[in-house]
């Protein structure tokens, strides 16, 4: 399915939300929140965000999300830690009730917490997604084994992890709508001021914070079942190292996983496993025979036979 795109200008004139027959069953939204504390002051760390288009709370609440969603629908709403109450207000204004959340734990390349977060009281290294339900629709079966946490490296300013899509698609049904989108994604309708493929996303990627999966393996119980997105993530890491020459035994030692789990993840990643042991020697049929020049030795002269005499009786 080719995604559709509606552009949201940075002016006060906001483009209408897209519609679809029957309404969208799942909505992902990352509003451009306007930061201010209870006194109306803006944190020094947040002043640099002034160059990005933002919306105040009432503008966000006024978006007619309830009109473009199905009778039964799911909402995944990104909210900064400092604006949780405002996030609940928006969720309810759009016709949803809060039931749970998913936490994004921002990591460095080595797996440690990303210390570049901002805030008045703590350095925020997490960001929640509020999960709301409209009507009575439950999550899909894979959600029963999906943990409510995403652990990945931080990307450019405000860009959320791509792993969110795998999680949402495995837990909630389509049709899908992404509001305030940066990129068009296959199978999704995108609405936002950066969703056009020709529009460069704002912000920049800091060295060492280029996004993507953490380059460490999460510890797993021996028989722990993996969610689809985590299985895919681990498979990609293992496949990359396996194709670079690492053996299954080496990958098992590095990850702490059993050889069987490593083999299963590699096969899930579409890899044809190499044979065990050393490479077989080439046979006469498969390998050309190298001719070796043999130096002929001069023939030895036969020794003269001794003459024999008959003895007379």
From TrEMBL:
Q: Which GO terms describe its biological process?
A: methylation
- Occurrences of domain Helix-turn-helix (ranges): 232-280
**Which intervals carry biased composition (Basic residues)?**
292-313
InterPro entries to which the protein is assigned, alphabetical: HTH_58_Actinobacteria-type (IPR045745), MT-A70-like (IPR007757), SAM-dependent_MTases_sf (IPR029063)
Task: For this UniProt record, give its keywords in alphabetical order, as a comma-separated list.
Answer: Methyltransferase, S-adenosyl-L-methionine, Transferase
**Where are the annotated segments for Disordered?**
273-313
Pfam family, any one: HTH_58
The organism's superkingdom is given as: Bacteria
Q: Which GO terms describe its molecular function?
A: methyltransferase activity
Annotated family: Belongs to the MT-A70-like family.
Alphabetical list of PANTHER family matching this protein: N6-ADENOSINE-METHYLTRANSFERASE, N6-ADENOSINE-METHYLTRANSFERASE CATALYTIC SUBUNIT
What is the official name of this protein in its record? N6-adenosine-specific RNA methylase IME4
Origin organism is: Gordonia humi
